[in-house]
Amino acid sequence: MKSIQPNIGLFSYYYYMRIFFIILFFILISIVKAQTITIEFTNIRSSKGQLLLGVYDNGEDYKEKIAIKKQTVYKTNLKEGKLTTTITGLKPGTYGIALLDDEDYDRKMAFRFFLPHEGFAFSNYYHTGFTRPVYDDFKFQLGNEDKKIVMKLRYL
Questions:
Q1: Roughly how many angstroms between the first and final C-alpha of the chain, as a whole number?
Q2: Three-class SS state of 145
Q3: This prediction's pTM
């Protein structure tokens, strides 16, 4: 008796497996290229609250407060006003990091007499003005190597 193969269409099981492994290969390559940013926070005035980080990759998103990555850093390991954390999963490119020292856990800047009452910082940039800085002031290049950033907090 002659065996009848089921009609599985134009493509075979092996074709789909090849496509699956090709896609898996490109996903793994993109993961391998992701870099680590080590951030050292300095001048933190108190162990109250948490640090809220926002990573931006362009000025327009920074103006609109649309971060491509957000991270909360708890101050449990705070020593002498310093703390360190890492951000992973970013591909090479141009980025800027903004920070809020959210001392009252409300996830927004507290103001007193129209001035920020909580601390703030930006990647490799100490902001001394009274208006918000522009993205170009604190952006940096992330290449194929890991990067270290220093963020000195300012309180008004």
A1: 89
A2: coil
A3: 0.76
